[in-house]
Amino acid sequence: MARKRRKWTDEDRQFLRDNYQNMSKNGLAEHFDSSVGAIAYQLRKLGLRRHGVWTDERDDFLRDNYMKMTNKELARGLGLGSHAIGRRLRELQLRRSKKWTSESDQFLKDNYKIMSNSFLAKKLGVAELAIAKRLSRIGLVRKTGKWSKRKEEFLRANYKRLSVNELSAECGMPLDYIRNKIAELGLR
After folding, report:
1. pLDDT for 60-91, tens place per residue?
2. Which is the most buried residue in 35, 58, 140, 178, by most CB within 10 A?
3. Is this structure's pTM higher than 0.70?
């Protein structure tokens, strides 16, 4: 059911002016029983932008926790939006970069042809994007096709009925790719 459109009063607008720096959009939306989009619209309409939201204490909280918490968790802890967290992490040049070891590079070299980026990411405990960037940086390029939705659906529908060799032929993927995709999808 859609929310009833709110009629904004002068008192509501004054409350926004007085509190938009100290409350998150979610908090304001809750206060007004309104949507976050409606709050954002009113803030824009009133020309209210959040400058100076970053205090030394908030910056210290980011520095102490950005490696342990996601942006969403940091945002919750500070009562801000996750976009504001991402922007501030960039401004402070705080990056969550994995320290790639020779062992993790060797794991990639040994497995990039037979495992998807998603599966490699799970095995190494990093994001898929980190895997893609690292593969590119160390010059590892796959020559085989990617898993399309159609191929994945075919595999799900036929993995019990067909042998790995038959699945490989039908999907046009190497045997190890088939085995790993079956494991990745938990189809055993």
Report:
1. 999 998 888 878 889 888 888 888 888 899 99
2. 178
3. no
